[in-house]
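Kindly draft a polypeptide, keeping tokens residue-aligned:

***
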Amino acid sequence: MHIFMPGKATGYLRASTQWLFVSLFLFPILPLAIANLLFIAFSFFVILSWIYIKPDRVWLSIKRNLVIALAFLPYLIDLAIHPHNSIVSFEAEKKLLFFVCPPVIGIYMAMYSLKPLKVYMYCFIAAVLALTLYTLALLVFRNILFSPQSFENGAYILRNSFEKISHLHPTYYSLFATVSILWLIYEYHKQTPLLKMLFVIIGLILFFQELFVAAKMPLAALVLSSLFLLYRITSNRKKLITIYLILIPCLVMLPILVPSLKNRIYEVKDSITLSSDQPNTVNDRQVIFDCSKTIFMNNIWFGLGSGNYQSALNVCYLCQGLNNIKNTQYNAHNQFLTMGINYGIIPLALFIIAMCIYIKRTIANPFATVLMISTIMVMLTESILERQWGVYFYVLFFMLIINISAKVQGKSIAS
């Protein structure tokens, strides 16, 4: 490595670049424009560093990251073929981070070392916690949180109010809260008694907010991942059994005690006992899944293209009697089916292979494993990469953990 800058200037450039990268993990609470500006600034500092610091083996560092981008190449190809199609352009713009982030972080890794994973995680958790406290305060102040009407019809009023206040869909918030809680569980045993108490308080705040917004799959992911994580990090099996015996009955009681969760779970029962023409989100989701699966299977090799994706779904929804689309556009609510409908089986396979590579490279670390498992579970019921926050979440955490794992060569990525 050849340095062409004075040592002090190089130090300032390194520190600025490193902390810009850390600040990107505040994205849950940032306006999208600010998050984009932070990423542009980070990219600028990385390129500036590259000009003055001539790092060796840059391509090897970039190549490791490109696996995440391969599945999304059809979006750029589609844009090149249909440059004036506004829908195709919009979908390609949302996926740009998949193409910019791998080389930028690859160059960054060739020059600088990443900070410990806990630095990024605590930054992320601070953002999620701040968002939680802000939305909770407004929900209480506006008399929404404790109003019986807020919990009717699958807690529609509560969930809709939460989204308007936070500017974040309940499923995305719940995924972010789930990952935050899993990290607190993972790191809990390493802390001092005072910090353990702080971890418990933060975890409970995030958990109860997640319960109130009642996004079912993130909650399921939290429960299953927590049980798995506790199994991996608790060497004393008697202690583990005791934890399970306390935890499982509490989890069983939650649907009875939390009105929004109770209403959401009872929708499953109502979907069986009520007629299909009565409003019910489970029935709606079944129609959405059936249409998405049918369209994917009918276009399995090359897909329809992102420009035709939503219109094809809308036609099927109307044929199946889902008249809600007159007011709301429903995507496939499944990231895997979304990719398959858009561009067929090959990009979908590449997407899954990238996930498998991630799991293989990080299998030694239980937190990295449960992060991906939770994300995959949520992707089964939500097309999280169709919104910018989902793209930021997936790309940043994928890049971060893959690169830390590569640097430590099998050691604990949290150390």
DSSP finds 19 helices and two strands in the chain. Residues 70 and 350 are 7 Å apart (CA to CA).
